[in-house]
Amino acid sequence: MCGIVGYIGNREIKSLLLEGLKELEYRGYDSAGIAIMQKDDIRYFKAVGKLKNLAEKTKDFKTEGFGVGIGHTRWATHGKPTELNAHPHLGEFSYVVHNGIIENYQELKKELIESGVNFVSQTDTEVIVHLFEKNLKNSKDPMEAFEKTIETLKGAYAILLITKSAPDTIFFARKGSPLIIGTNDKGEIFFASSDAPLISNATEVIYLEDGEYGYANKEGIKLFANKEEKEPVKVPLTTDKQYAQKGGFRFFMEKEIYEQSEVVGDTILGRASNGKIYFEELKEEIIEGINEIKICACGTSYHAGLTSAYLFERMAKIRCSVEIASEFRYKEPLLTKDTLFVVISQSGETADTLEALRMAKKAGLKTLAICNVDNSSIVRLADYTILTRAGIEKGVASTKAFATQVMVLWMLVLYFSQIRKTLSDETIANELKAIRRIPKVVKVKDKLHEKIKRLSKRYLHGHGFFYIGRDIFFPLALEGALKLKEISYLHAEGYPAGEMKHGPIALADSELFTIALMPKTVHYDKIKSNVEELSARDATILAISPVEFELADDFIKTEYFDHPMIEFFEMMVITQLLAMEIAIRLGNDVDMPRNLAKSVTVE
Ligand code: AGP
Q1: What is the pTM of this model?
Q2: Which candidate in 148, 154, 241, 598 is catalytic?
Q3: Domain 3-244 adopts which CATH fold?
Q4: Is 486 in the pocket of ligand 1 (CB under 6 A)?
Q5: CATH number corresponding to 446-585
Q6: pLDDT tens-place string over residues 15-57
Q7: Edge-to-edge strands of the sheet including 67-74?
Q8: What is d(CA 267, CA 56) in angstroms, rounded to the nearest whole number?
């Protein structure tokens, strides 16, 4: 998830672009760049790392008079965070910045290379500018070339492009990634990925819809959809920056729960098509000679690993064990070279997980990192990396990072199943169908959120919570309990439902709150009888299920029940919202809970 800005006007352009990018650093900052065109002269600057490095690089440069400029902060999805991979990407006389993923970039890149184009970056974005310049050769004008270009792109994008073939003009397009145009009464025109950079500059905004594109220059804005010109709809702009950075949500955690639909879509893009799973980051040999997968992680990432272990064994027919990194590093583990060592980490900097990875490397094992931060310590050390593409996660309590980790792992299970031929094509096709539904499944429904908000008032005390589930819903129970503990400071335990009778049921009384995950597709009858045992002992039950459960004191009805992982993701959102609404009622700082850090870089 990157941030893009643009400007058309007479003010000093470099500082305006840098200020705008500063407001977007929450979207990504492993590299940044700007390009400014005045008449037919274009200057550009790029820098790796934080925005201050770009500011340092451009400190002696400033503009005078009218011009147009575009800028970008990057959160790597394709290609390492390097200066070459930083945006803007250059053609011979055009420059482009992009947020999103071009799903068909490899075939486009191949065609362009065969036609003699030289690429300098590993990114998907670079195809856009070369394709535009190629189209320009047989188009009546730059707008037609731009239109042809975006018609060819598949995937998600928010694009700003400037070119010497159209001085004083910015071309724009939006599909799947946000892009807003701002205007004011001085005739200035602004572009940004979110409201924040527009506040105190623009007075009205145009929230572009998917499929809208066009160009802007000193004469104004021309907007199109499906080759038809359309009138831009302007609305007043909010004035609260913090509110804007949170996209109007109360907390970053809430925003990130709502973002899961978009980012899980990004995680899947380019990896699940034509009835198969692809990971361009992997080679099939990664699984050669491997008889076991050992996963090592901490906290929420550990729960994602636990979930996948059921799937690796059940579908890829490969032994899979999961270890807590802080335990693993001191247990003198027996490691054999036929083990693929997988570490999962949102930050890529967790000390225990990093040390576990070092141990596996030292023992000569093949290593794979599933991580959200490119160029992090864990990514730099692992032999292979799959990026989760969740974008920056600001809330300390992990939500979208977990969702994208589980999605990557589920796809990895299928990728290995394809290589090991353990599943029929029909089964894989079924799994892919379920995968493609997840972005919709995790979209938060207002009615559901309202119900959870109301419900949460009943769960603000008690002597504890048990989250219970079976099979993949046991790690989800652990994760739900962790979410609640982290931000409400109430005690909660995740427990295998079948284990309650081996002791914990002694705790059952009306003050013990049991959150029961009761999917229809996984051992429903068994979990039902476990919950009945608790209800018979007067435990207070909140049942989450597609099937009515009359013994529940509270009941949240889920919509989907035709695939275990679809039920998993739907219940995941419910447990995240429940923890958040309870914490909000308790008046806690949901984004920065006491005693916690976003990344535990010490033992
Ligand atoms: C999850 O909500 C917590 N913030 C924490 O358990 C986290 O998952 C754990 O510290 C691991 O972090 P990592 O994924 O960055 O390695």
Answers
A1: 0.81
A2: 598
A3: Glutamine Phosphoribosylpyrophosphate, subunit 1, domain 1 (3.60.20)
A4: yes
A5: 3.40.50.10490
A6: 999 999 998 876 667 899 999 999 889 999 999 988 999 999 9
A7: 41-48, 31-38, 67-74, 3-9, 189-192, 180-183, 204-207, 235-236
A8: 34
